[in-house]
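Regression report. Comparing outputs from two consecutive submissions.

Submission 1:
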Amino acid sequence: MKNKDLLKIAEEFGNPVYVYDSEKIIAQYKRLTNAFKQVKNLKVNYAVKALSNINVLKLLTNEGSGLDTVSIQEVQLGLKTGIAPEKIIFTPNGVSISEIEEAVKLGVQINIDNLSVLEQFGSKHPTIPVCIRINPHIMAGGNSNISVGHIDSKFGISIHQMPHLLRIVENTGMNINGIHMHTGSDILDIEVFLYASEILFEAAENFKNLEFLDFGSGFKVPYHENDIETNIEELGEKLSKKFNAFCKKYGKELTLAFEPGKFLVSESGFFLVKVNSIKQTTSTVFAQVDSGFNHLIRPMLYGSKHEIVNITHPTKNKRFYSVVGYICETDTFATNKRIAEITEGDILAFKNAGAYCFSMASNYNSRFRPAEVLWHKGEAKLIRKRETFEDLIANQVEVEL
């Protein structure tokens, strides 16, 4: 997308506003599938939690993607797109057995990561195919909050609990059709995936009726110009060889599955905000914008870095700014960032705003959540309306006091 396209969208739909480039999403999907073209059966399940707008789900399912879901509501969103239930995998954590059984009724693939739940489910539903999420005890990811495969993680069944796991499967007669793992997000070193794959292959040998192995995701995307990223092409070449060799040893052509979220949608997204004022203190120049961490919490929550550009005056000399929001507590998007000189009323674009941005937005400070726009085939399509005061109070119930 060009600056002029983004400026036109800001003018037409107001700001703040999220914008997603469908062409980039499709390109990332094709890049991943091409990297693993040596695998006979490849399945990509888009991680709905990254960006759950139903139009984005439709875009990806139209390309052949399945869906990775973590709540019954995400399952329902997926089904609303018209996708077949068997193309959805349900990978919750810490939910009740009743929620899992609700997913069973909807016909989706179940993925269980808890020995207690596994035993309860297997005793009641021994014939229903189940995938098991393994914790490989590998510390990986760009932040402790998104590293989920280490020894103290709440996710997955410890690889060291395999004897207990196998006893449950044997005693219940369960049908285990998949093995899954996910070590974290923003993983740069492909050796992490290759090392973890050996653990998954070894675990898989304990089960005779597998249909797929799910390697999770966590591929790192570039966050600024010349930033490093996961080498998907190299990973595809090396992991495909290992996977094909394992299938030959196993005696069956299995499906290789991934569940990317950020990799598919992060770079497609732009978050557009308007500068309300420039405020200079004794040591800092603040660019105060018409948004806050209620709309984009990642910098405050994870310390994530989003490249910020002045698309109104991109060629002006760069100066140092701290970009801050309007929430009534510390609300910093960036500190001492070099940005083309900003004046009040300028539109700033936050890049890499496609993943875990709108999906984590809230109404904190009773602010409205912004609109979402899909840039598709050269046309801006509104895919979520900006909230109104009526939306804010829709579920509140007034009582006599």
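Submission 2:
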Amino acid sequence: MFKKTLLLLLFFIGLTTKTFAAYVLIPMDAESQKDHLKAYGITYWALTKQIKVKWLLNYRGGAFLLPAAEALQQECTIRGVSYELISNANAEKILEEISSPAKNQEAVLLEKAPKIAVYTPNDDAPWDDAVTMVLTYAEIPYETIYDKEVLENKLLLYDWLHLHHEDFTGQYGKFYNRYRATPWYIKAKTDAEALANELGYQKVSEQKLAVALKIRDYVVGGGFMFAMCSATDSFDIALSAEGVDICEPMFDGDPSDPSYQNKIDYTKTFAFTNFTLERSPMVYEFSSIDMTAKRNVPKEKDYFSLMTYSAKWDPIPTMLTQNHTTLVKGFMGQTTAYHPEQIKPNVLVMGKNKRNEEARYIHGVKGKGFFTFYGGHDPEDYQHLVGDPKTELALHPNSPGYRLILNNVLFPAAKKKKQKT
């Protein structure tokens, strides 16, 4: 009788082990997740603990599936992230459904937490950076680097690089007209000139070009670069104007090349082509790439649509567009959006304002690496002005615009498949 009871007990223990929660599912749909942004931080945290994660593309807003662990559940609770406990059988059923050819879904394995660098100066610039704000809010660690570190080849230590609000052309952000007499502008210009001289360059434009070329080499060698606002078009402009003086005297002390437009080499750029540079230092614009001055979009109708890709055939753009909505609120910046006719044909337009036919969110391949350009300054501050207070992301934990940034942060952790698009 005792032996029979023991066998039954062992059977039920075994049955319970099979049916009890074996996985944590972090849903990313609109209805189930309290804090989408911190959910990415939980996923990154798990990767730092050598826990492999499955990113369920197009399943419940791009949910994450992780092995169940007490520490993981505690971390979700502490950070306010919604999660569900599911059995091994239910997890297998979900993965089986996702693998069906009839489903535009895919399970992508995330294996290693990418090491993140943010290219940013060590001063108190009168604006905030969306990427550093969301990394901090999501509790994803990052390190800051600037020109000296880049020129010393320290980019090789990182998997992912973000370009903070930056002007790689040496024109100090084209802020001359409005801000040339302000203390912060004067100090920034003086500091930039001193740094260029320290690094062995006569002009800031020459030093910034050298930095842009190092970043280019980093991407070509297999790195991932994410840039927003003016760091996107000014980077390409600097590459295209290599060896050509495009700066007016108030920027570098001597006249620009009068025929510089004819000397622009579009073959050197990452994303843009056939653009015309803005010659006047009094105009707050770099070139015809940006659509800010050409926009006819009322704020209440300013949205952009995310493109849909085949999760099984094109997992890369699918990862980068994961969201709980396909319609994202627009937001402005020095570089708000990109002229569709000035984007190279091999670059994917992943987000588009259809009313104005402008590209907001683009991605491409360069050599062995990848880049993503995201127009605008702050996804939750429609028209962020110099000196405005920073956005409190605790008020926007489900921001679709900020989710796009964090998709890019996790992307290097994925086991890559060659995209077909």
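Expected: both submissions complete independently.
Actual: both completed, but the second showed a warning that disappeared on reload.
Relevant detail on submission 2: The chain has two domains: 12-110, 116-413.
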